[in-house]
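User: Just a sanity check before I run the rest of the batch. Below are the structure tokens for the first item. I only need the designed sequence back.
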């Protein structure tokens, strides 16, 4: 089964046993713009989160300690943020690069990317990884 998403009218294969629409390969050179290594990594992480969700549901059903449940939810959120980074890297290496190199739609791809990044603070907020600049000593 193929469903449509908010990304124009491009079909996106369900995670089930859908046969992908190979017409996209003609315009991007890749299947749905996903390079196999990124697709594998994203799917592996998503399937892990799916299993993790079942565990957290069980914790809530058994009235587990709230702080323990919150830690598990934070771990799932971190995993989903990693999936987003994988997808971002793939998108930059495929769709954006191809649009810019071909001279067709580069500006549109950059606008789409900026729009998507507005909703992904974890991809644009590096405060937790920033290294302070050295303070010059007085002479």
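Assistant: Here's the designed sequence for the first item:
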């Amino acid at each position: 089964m193929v469903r449509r998403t908010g990304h124009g009218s491009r079909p996106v294969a369900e995670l089930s046993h859908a046969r992908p629409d190979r017409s996209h390969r003609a315009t991007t050179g890749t299947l749905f713009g996903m390079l196999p290594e990124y697709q594998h990594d994203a799917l592996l992480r998503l399937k892990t989160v799916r299993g993790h969700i079942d565990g957290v549901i069980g914790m809530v059903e058994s009235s587990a300690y709230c702080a323990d449940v919150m830690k598990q939810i934070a771990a799932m959120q971190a995993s989903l943020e990693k999936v987003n980074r994988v997808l971002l890297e793939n998108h930059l290496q495929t769709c954006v690069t191809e649009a810019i190199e071909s001279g067709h739609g580069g500006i549109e791809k950059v606008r789409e990317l900026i729009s998507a990044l507005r909703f992904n603070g974890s991809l644009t907020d590096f405060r937790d990884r920033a290294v302070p600049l050295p303070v010059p000593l007085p002479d």
